Input
Amino acid sequence: MPDSSKSAGLPRAESQSSTSSRLLLAAAELFWEKGFSGASTRELSERLGIQKASLYYHIRSKDDLLYEISIRSLDDIQQAVVTALANAPIEGRLQALVHAHLRTALEERHMHATQLTELRSMSEERRSAVLARRDAYERTVIETIRAEQAAGRLRMDLDARYLGLGLLNLLNWTIFWYRPEGPKAIEELADFFCDLYINGAAADR
Amino acid sequence: MPDSSKSAGLPRAESQSSTSSRLLLAAAELFWEKGFSGASTRELSERLGIQKASLYYHIRSKDDLLYEISIRSLDDIQQAVVTALANAPIEGRLQALVHAHLRTALEERHMHATQLTELRSMSEERRSAVLARRDAYERTVIETIRAEQAAGRLRMDLDARYLGLGLLNLLNWTIFWYRPEGPKAIEELADFFCDLYINGAAADR
DNA sequence: GTCTATACTTCGATAGAC
DNA sequence: GTCTATCGAAGTATAGAC
Output
């Protein structure tokens, strides 16, 4: 990886617009539009304005791109949520999680959608590495819910694991229909999901 | 389509185990495992135990398979839900919808997952046809919710459209982690989602 | 309804010059 | 860091016999 800026966990500011800094995002967008197998390196290079062969100065293979997108997607969301949880008031942790998850996932929707749907296109070895990170994040969510139950803020009669999976259902599928140009802003949508998840849809009786 | 049993809306009983009756399900399973573009007609034919070329006696193209899977998936779920709504007691319509949706989607999970993720792999024309059916089903869901609001059983302060999208989030994503061998039966899971969606996760105050 | 054989296309990746 | 040129593999689909 001959990249001077290296991916040393630094915030990806300084959008140098260099080929290598645009590469991951362009690939994620293409994989999202065509699926990993349906996307060709030819089209990717066209979008970057370089020749097909020039791609291989930056990457070793198409597979590597998918792996890096998946890892980065999960690292970003894990980091955003952990930070949000640490900074949230004790009684607002669930809301902080929902906002951080949705904001990160929707702002990087092409990477997240790719990570969520293209596990199948990875080698066994890499799939395991991605799954390990996914499981770690799932545990973060479930443990947050368990703590809210223990604090008396969430129902104890429902299994924390399924409460967590239900919350992830609510959040993850949104990537597939959310449009940034649409009527609802991200924070507004996050508030809506918090309200629905916590208070339910039933009219007061 | 030289198929004597034709797909005349009949219940797909009589599993003759003929090649043509196994074809759609085998294709859906393969598309789900590899993605549409990642799946080869070679592997499909191997799974069916015939030669690659023999496929083309039953289908005109690989694209046709995807289209038929998508249409059938949506027709099945629409029909199951409309029937369930018609037979449900007036105050149990939402529960009937959730059960019918989840049961159909999970029982035919390969077809539904393919329909949900492979819209992008279709021609413009066919994508429109599938989207029209998807929109029609979405309207069925939203109208059911609107009726529940009017009857005073669901909150009026939340937009019926987003309540519908939220419910579909909850149900659709389940396809991606549900395992038939797992601990929770389909009906049990449906009851859980009904409870969570209607009553919310908050502890009683 | 299935076979063998093959035509045609597209793809991922490499070699080597600049 | 990007280019031109090309290789070899794999994919979809067709032709025509049985």
Q: What stands out?
A: The CA atoms of residues 13 and 21 of chain B lie 10 Å apart.
